[in-house]
Fold Probable transaldolase.
Amino acid sequence: MKFFIDTANLKDIQEAVELGVLDGVTTNPSLMAKEGIKGMDNIMAHYQQICELVDGDVSAEVIGTEYEDIIREGEMFADLHPNIVVKVPMTRDGVKAIKYFSEKGIKTNCTLIFSAGQALLAAKAGATYVSPFVGRLDDIGADGLQLIQQIVDIFSNYGYSTQVLAASVRHVPHLIQCAELGADVVTCPLSVITGLLYHPLTDKGLAQFLADHKKVNG
């Protein structure tokens, strides 16, 4: 499973890089705004900084919703750096744009996936990734993990190369369950990735080892 970090915060990205397990980054306009990044020139410069930090795919989300606007923004992002993946919404025009980008050799991430049918359409159009939102489905009483399982099974049935990128992953159990179900990628905050480090028995065992060492060595 690939680990992507879902943020535009350079400090968090750098920390994940230093941990040695980061495979990529996903962002969106909300995450950019959270970091105070405004204006297209500043946004482009920020994406450039992220790409310089990360040796892996970096999803840059388009703002436009009309086909021509998605194409214009997507090509601009793709020209910025080879690691850029154009993040496109699951809409009629978004699917058409994914087909266009696929034929041009531009990587895409179809976002806001909430059904297996949507994922299937994106895969048929040639999406590099589809991003089903686990946590947001759980928020409305649906089963986000069941959706991951459906998509993984469908893609396996027909040999689609599109990768299942589990998004809106909010805690360690989500991440582990997505791994069990065969998601290709998980994207989450840094806290979820570092949460994998900890277990109370590890802490207890280490404390005991150190205490025993001190007794023996003074």
